[in-house]
Write a structure and sequence with these properties.
18% helix; two-stranded antiparallel sheet; globular
Length: 55
């Protein structure tokens, strides 16, 4: 399972690269819908700030 931390700058790169469409903009920053997430790691490798971590 992946999580987007407060280091997120809301650039949207992770959402664009998510093959499942599991990432959307939230109130504070982008968020991952774990019910849809494929746990492929594409978002983690695409994040320019390293804000996505595996839990």
């Amino acid at each position: 399972m992946y999580k987007i931390t407060d280091a997120c700058v809301s650039c949207g790169t992770c959402a664009e690269g998510c093959p499942a469409g599991a990432i959307a903009e939230g109130e504070q920053h982008y968020e991952i819908n774990n019910d849809v997430c494929l746990e492929c790691g594409a978002c983690e490798s695409s994040c320019p700030t390293g804000a996505i971590v595996e839990e």
